[in-house]
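ARCHIVE RECORD
Type: protein–small molecule complex
Small molecule: iron/sulfur cluster
Source of inputs: curated submission
Record status: active
Notes field left blank by submitter.
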Amino acid sequence: MKRPLEDLRISVTDRCNFRCTYCMPLDEYPWISRDQILTFEEIARTAGVFAGLGVKKLRITGGEPLVRKGLPELVAQLAAIPGIEDIALTTNASRLVELAQPLKDAGLKRLTISIDSLQPDRFRQITQRADLQPVLDGIESAREAGFGQLKFNAVVERGVNEDEILDLAEFARANGDEMRFIEFMDVGNANSWTSEKLVSQREILKVLRSRYELIERDGRGSRPSQDYSFADGRGGVGVIASVTEPFCGACSRVRLTADGQVVTCLFADVGADLKGRLRSGESDEQLSEFVTDIWQKRADRYSETRLIQMNSPSGYTPQNRKKIEMISLGG
Ligand code: SAM
Ligand code: SF4
Ligand code: SF4
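STRUCTURE (tokenized, with ligand):
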């Protein structure tokens, strides 16, 4: 399967100050030890190798990327790499009050902010340890820092927050921002995914259309979301239907874990060890060959296979396969 290599997602830490039930439900994980975490210099060098292979877009993620100390310094190093046109960050926004402006000044172009509920009690239930207000303050700081249109992500889970689809869409729209609803996925090994908890793209769009006239934008290309404009032109909305409408054939992303593994699929069980090569003194050319080889051999189509199994008489059981936790991978 030949897919262009366009988009590198960099996980800068596996730690997080939240414990969202759908992502990282447990208190403790076998955390990556400090000496195994790539330094900013190692990350920037790796990003340079990927840029040489055609990657133009970087996304910094985690875990929660803002818990990694000195993150603006990494952004500045990444922004200086020739060929990199876009640097985005996915965050829970809890530390944006202090960090929005330094990140913007360092060269961060875009922010995606996860927010699954606008109700303080429910927000705490979902995140298990966080308050909503600092997140709302962080969003305000992002606006003040001049990030322009923000993107929001919400994972929709049945029995948890599916009654907030319209409120969340309006929250984003009120400021001309974009809300993206994500189908609940069976990432990692601990989030107790079942198909009953899945709210499908079809259902999400039905709820949205009960209030708004939506205009479908151009095909999603290699983007994971199908995007829509509102008929009145204010803001936008999208759905990431990884479960019911998988897009493996167009998947052009590669992931670098916080401990320097190259992973080609969100549902992978192993990565390829780049850190060992970086630390044993391989040249950029050697690293580049290593990555090219991984990409050329890549045949991932996990979400497509899952859908086939979900529709088969025996069904799909996520527990049958051990995966890398999403916190190490970067969503
Ligand atoms: N901590 C940051 C955040 O929450 O935005 C970045 C990392 S988080 C793993 C990246 C994205 O993955 C978030 O938008 C989150 O909602 C999404 N995510 C996590 N677990 C998920 C799941 N089980 N199904 C769908 N999306 C999930
Ligand atoms: Fe942390 Fe983001 Fe996962 Fe929530 S979704 S537990 S904020 S990494
Ligand atoms: Fe890409 Fe894997 Fe997701 Fe398919 S399942 S879209 S290959 S990350």
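CURATOR ANNOTATION: The mean pLDDT is 91.
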